[in-house]
Amino acid sequence: MTDSPLKEKLLSCQNKPVTITDFAIGHRGGGTLQFPEETKQSEDAGARMGAGILECDVSFTGDRGLVCRHSLCDLHTTTDILLRPDLAKKCTVPFTPANATAPANALCCTSDITINEYSSLCGKQDGFNASARTPQEYQSGTPNWRTELYDTCGKVLTLNEYIDLVDSYPGNRNFTPELKTPPPQVPMPFKGYTQQQYAQDFVDMFRKKHIDSSRIWPQSFLYEDIVYWLKNDHDFGKQAIYLQEFDTPGDLAAGMKNLSIAKAAGVNIIGPSIPMLVAPGGPNNKSIVPSAYANAIKQNGLDIIAWTYERSGPLATVKARDEYYFSTIANITYYDGQYYELLDVLSNQIGIKGLFTDWAATVTYFANCFGLNGPVGGSYT
Predict the structure, then answer these.
(1) Which residues of 195-210 are buried (b: 16+ CB within 10 A; e: fewer)?
(2) Where in the numbering of this chain does the GP-PDE domain appear (predicted)?
(3) Which of 42, 119, 208, 360 fits a 20 to 30 Å CA distance from 145?
(4) Based on the domain organization, do 61 and 166 belong to the same domain?
(5) CB 351 within 8 A of CB 340
(6) What's the confidence (pLDDT) of residue 270?
(7) Nearest 5°: phi and psi at 250?
(8) What is the pLDDT of residue 380?
(9) Nearest-5° angle of CA 217, CA 51, CA 349?
(10) Do 184 and 169 lie in a common domain?
């Protein structure tokens, strides 16, 4: 970091005790920078690094089991399914080797297999080798700023196992499950399984476990899911995070107009991506400042939980790599210390309530230094 009051503040906290904070939200577990996502190992790491809220992205299997997977159709890049011939043959698109005119290809979905078959898989770092001639070669492709050191059969989780795991951690940890919207390859209703039943099964799993709704921060990109929860289980729905990802000026403008509609419907929390919240500004446009969209959310009386921190690799190359999470400030991003400058704007200028992170320790340290406690369960109506 360059010398600044922010750097001095952060240095002043280096010998202070660090405690669990709900401001730090374990993205896909919170140890995702080094451990396979959506696995027990990533959840364990996020919890040990102080994340007070831990995530499970919820997808469904062919027999309607609910499991932790970021996409219904990413098993070919996040697990070893292609190395299991009995399961690989069930994939929506079985493995096809690369040739002179086409890259290697595969598409394996949770809906292709049963929940028991899913539980037999090993989680791995997300990645693939487009030049692969064999399923074994296809397993590589992890970004070089991550590591495969811990790709030693990460334990994949069902939603049931995730709830028990998070509930077992010391420190009263909380839950943020995301109901994943099925991709076009898995059209809904899926063999009679409707989106509404999927959303209800998602709620029912927590109810059966007697988890108080104040501990749950459900998420969805699908506005209809949020409205369904608000109407059918308001205690659950009032803490729901309406996720958003708008990348064009037109979409952002439409999103701004819809904020008041969402607020009127009972939505309390918006979950935008980080680049939606920040922009260049200040003298010569050389500083990170709140975006117009961030200001619009606050003006409509909505809280913000943002995503995703430390998912970008070295900041010196974000512009060259066209890295998404720094896309709106790439022209003024040069060094890794700006991660803290970004976090300062998000928390102390915009006032976000929480931040999804791939390495929870960084956000935990910052939150402890500035006294950021995260969203307060049970405080919404």
Answers:
(1) beebbbbbbebbeeee
(2) 22-350
(3) 119
(4) yes
(5) no
(6) 99
(7) -65, -45
(8) 98
(9) 80
(10) yes
Final residue of a structural domain among 154, 175, 191: 154
Q: How far is CA 40 from CA 68, 96, 354, in A?
A: 10, 30, 22
Structure tokens at 187: 């059209």
- pLDDT value for 367: 99
The answer to whether position 376 is within a domain reads no
- 8-state DSSP, 28: G
Which pLDDT score, from 0 to 100, does residue 300 have? 98
Domain range enclosing 116: 73-154
Q: Distance (Å, rounded) from C-alpha 372 to C-alpha 356?
A: 14
Query: Does one domain contain both 198 and 239?
Result: yes
pLDDT at 142: 95
Query: Is residue 135 domain-shared with residue 277, that is, in the same domain?
Result: no
> Rounded distance, CA 212 to CA 103, Å?
48
Q: Domain ends where: 98, 128, 154?
A: 154
Is residue 160 located within the same domain as residue 150? no
Residue-level pLDDT at 77: 99
3-class DSSP assignment, residue 163: helix
- pLDDT at position 82, please? 99
Say what the pLDDT of residue 338 is: 98
- Indicate the burial class of 168 (C-beta count within 10 angstroms; 0-12, 13-18, 19 or more): exposed
Q: Which residues of the chain have pLDDT under 50?
A: none
pLDDT of residue 95: 99
Given this model, what pLDDT does residue 316 score? Answer: 97
pLDDT at 294: 98
At residue 54, what is the residue type?
L
